[in-house]
Amino acid sequence: MAVEEECTCPEVAEREEWIYTYGDMVTLLLCFFILLFAMSKSEAELFKAVSASFAGGPPASPFQFAGMPTFMESLESSMQKSSVGESTEITVDDRGITVSFADTVMFEHGSANISEGGAKVLEAFSRIVHAIPNSMVIEGHTDDQHMTGGAYPSNWELSGARAGAVARLMEEYGVKRNRMEIAGYADTRPRVANETASLRRLNRRIDVLIKPAGM
């Protein structure tokens, strides 16, 4: 009878080094998604903080946490529903809320006299901002074209005169004068390059900066 011989060959252990590479990959992916989540949460909190700073209520007002619209949302909504929204552009940055009025809506070329249509837009705008306590800076901006003749020797005088005219009319419409200040920037702060007539038109504007509460 044949006797089966026992196999004395050494067992080959299964290589498991791949698990370390796989674990590193999973860990890196987890860190990546945690980082994305943290960044998105930080941006959301920052946006909420900026919005809350414009609130008409006291700090930490419960309305901010009860689904009530923020001041920024209310302002934009009110403007879009009124005639103001048709002729303005609203932007938000670290300085506050900026409402831009095109000079074609407000003034004749080279003039600081507010047009009839511009006066109506300012009246509607003044009704919206009348009830809020925030301070405002009214900024006049021009393109880079030099003044030739007329009442203003340079864009400095024109931009300042236009800002002053807007502030004076807003005061007539009920906005308190101690909430406003004016600035004339001439062509020193263009929105776009002054390369064509259509681009220069974008730079000729009145910006009303609504500051955060307490600033």
TrEMBL record:
<dbReference type="InterPro" id="IPR050330">
    <property type="entry name" value="Bact_OuterMem_StrucFunc"/>
</dbReference>
<feature type="transmembrane region" description="Helical">
    <location>
        <begin position="19"/>
        <end position="38"/>
    </location>
</feature>
<comment type="similarity">
    <text>Belongs to the MotB family.</text>
</comment>
<dbReference type="InterPro" id="IPR025713">
    <property type="entry name" value="MotB-like_N_dom"/>
</dbReference>
<protein>
    <recommendedName>
        <fullName>OmpA-like domain-containing protein</fullName>
    </recommendedName>
</protein>
<keyword id="KW-0812">Transmembrane</keyword>
<feature type="domain" description="OmpA-like">
    <location>
        <begin position="92"/>
        <end position="214"/>
    </location>
</feature>
<keyword id="KW-0472">Membrane</keyword>
<keyword id="KW-1003">Cell membrane</keyword>
<dbReference type="InterPro" id="IPR036737">
    <property type="entry name" value="OmpA-like_sf"/>
</dbReference>
<dbReference type="GO" id="GO:0005886">
    <property type="term" value="C:plasma membrane"/>
</dbReference>
<dbReference type="InterPro" id="IPR006665">
    <property type="entry name" value="OmpA-like"/>
</dbReference>
<keyword id="KW-1133">Transmembrane helix</keyword>
<dbReference type="Pfam" id="PF13677">
    <property type="entry name" value="MotB_plug"/>
</dbReference>
<dbReference type="Pfam" id="PF00691">
    <property type="entry name" value="OmpA"/>
</dbReference>
